[in-house]
Design brief:
about 375 residues; alpha/beta; 8-stranded parallel beta barrel; 15 helices
Length: about 375
C-alpha cells in the first residue's frame, strides 16, 4: 500500500458539502477530543472552525508544550547548486529561466560550513536544484563528508532518489529528508510541471516513503501553499504525514507550511492564503498530530513568525540565504535566490527573540 491509495480515496470527496454540514457543537466536541480522526481534522480546516480559533489555539499550545516543551530548534539552509532539470512554472531555478548557474566546490562548501558553524547552529538543510547530473548522489556524499565535520544533523532537500541512493547518503552522514509534493491536486500538479523528471506525480508522492524505508531519522513534507485550495491541500498533507507516522514508527515526521513567494519567473498564485489561513492550518495540524514537528520558514515576515511560536511551531530557520554560496560570499555577484525571504534576522536576533518569548532556542538536539 502507498499513500496514493489514500489520496485516491479522498480526491473526489465532497469537501464543500461536508463543511456546510459541520455545526458549532461538532467543532467544540472535536476540540475536546484526545485523538482526532481524518474527518475531525478536516472539520478544523473548515470555514466554520474559524469562529473557534482562540479555543483551538489554547489546545494547540497545550499539546505543543506537552510534547516538545518550550523549545524551538534552529537551523539554516545551505544551497550547494542551482542547476535544475525541471520546468516548474513557480520556481526561480526552473530550467527555462535564464540565470547564472553555479555549483559549489568542496573548498567553497567548507567555507560555507565554517561561516554557518560560527553562528552556533549545528543543524543544516542542504539544497540543490533538481538536477541528478549536476548534483549527483556522489557529489552530495562528498559534500556531506565535509559538512559532518561541522554539524550534528544534516538534512537534504534535493531531487527524489531511490531507496539505495538514500541509504548511501545516510551512510555518508545525512539523517533527514525534506521533500515537498508542492501540490497534491494531481490535475494542477501536471499543469504546473509540464516537463522534466518532476512531471512524474506518483514517483514524487512516494519519495517520503522511500526515505522512511531507507531509515532516515527524520522526514519533513509539505505542500506549497497558494498553488491550489489551501484547505484541501492541508488536509492531504496531514493525511500523508499521518500515514507515514503510523507506518514508520522509528522516523520523526514533520510538516512545513510554506506559502509561495515572488520568484524569477513572475508566477502569481491563483489561490490566496492569508495570515489567518496559515494560523488555522498550523492549529489544525497540531491537534491532529500532536507529536509531529511543524516548521515555519523565513518566507514569513518577522511579526508573524514571532506570533506563530506559541501556536505549535517547533522548528525555525535563521540567518537564511536562498542563493548558492550565500553564507560565505561564494555566490556570483548576480546570484539568483530561489525565492524572496521576509525575515532576514540573523541567528543572534532569533535567539534573543525566543528567549524573550520564554522559549529555549535549541542549536543541537541530535548526535
Amino acid at each position: 500500500m502507498s499513500f496514493y491509495e489514500i489520496y485516491n480515496r479522498f480526491k473526489k470527496f465532497d469537501f464543500e458539502n461536508y463543511w456546510q454540514r459541520i455545526n458549532d457543537a461538532a467543532i467544540l466536541k472535536i476540540i475536546a477530543k484526545d485523538r482526532l480522526d481524518y474527518l475531525d481534522y478536516l472539520a478544523l480546516l473548515s470555514p466554520k472552525a474559524t469562529a473557534f480559533m482562540e479555543l483551538i489555539a489554547q489546545k494547540a499550545q497545550q499539546l505543543t508544550v506537552q510534547h516538545f516543551g518550550r523549545t524551538v530548534l534552529l537551523y539554516t539552509p545551505l544551497y550547494l547548486a542551482n542547476y535544475c532539470s525541471n520546468h516548474c512554472v513557480y520556481c526561480s531555478f526552473s530550467a527555462l529561466n535564464k540565470l547564472p548557474r553555479q555549483k559549489l566546490t568542496l573548498q567553497q562548501v567548507t567555507a560555507e560550513a565554517q561561516a554557518i558553524a560560527a553562528t552556533g547552529l549545528r543543524h543544516i538543510l542542504i539544497l540543490t536544484g533538481e538536477s541528478s547530473t549536476h548534483s549527483s548522489t556522489i557529489y552530495i556524499e562528498k559534500c556531506t563528508e565535509v559538512l559532518k565535520k561541522y554539524f550534528n544533523s544534516i538534512s537534504i532537500e534535493i531531487h527524489p532518489l531511490d531507496i539505495t541512493d538514500y541509504s548511501k547518503l545516510i551512510a555518508a552522514g545525512v539523517d533527514g529528508l525534506t521533500i515537498y509534493q508542492e501540490v497534491y491536486n494531481q490535475a494542477i500538479y501536471q499543469r504546473l510541471h509540464p516537463s522534466g523528471p518532476k512531471k512524474n506525480y506518483h514517483y514524487r508522492l512516494d519519495t517520503p516513503e522511500r526515505g522512511c524505508q531507507a531509515k532516515m531519522r527524520a522526514v519533513n513534507i509539505g505542500a506549497l501553499l497558494g498553488l491550489a485550495d489551501w484547505r484541501k491541500e492541508s488536509f492531504f498533507t496531514g493525511l500523508h504525514a499521518d500515514y507515514l507516522q503510523n507506518k514508520y514508527l522509528d522516523t520523526e515526521i514533520s510538516i512545513s507550511v510554506p506559502r509561495i513567494r515572488a520568484n524569477l519567473g513572475g508566477f502569481r498564485p491563483e489561490y490566496d492564503v492569508s495570515d489567518r489561513d496559515l494560523v488555522q492550518i498550523i492549529l489544525a495540524h497540531r491537534l491532529f498530530m500532536p507529536r509531529a514537528g511543524i516548521t515555519v520558514s523565513t518566507r514569513e515576515r518577522v511579526e508573524l513568525r514571532n506570533n506563530l511560536i506559541k501556536l505549535g511551531v517547533t522548528k525555525m530557520s535563521a540567518g537564511v540565504t536562498t542563493a548558492v554560496g550565500g553564507h560565505a560570499g561564494n555566490g556570483s555577484e548576480t546570484g539568483t535566490a530561489q525565492f524572496e525571504i521576509s525575515d532576514t534576522r540573523g541567528v543572534p536576533e532569533i535567539r534573543a527573540m525566543l528567549l524573550k518569548s520564554g522559549y529555549q532556542p535549541v542549536f543541537k538536539d541530535w548526535q
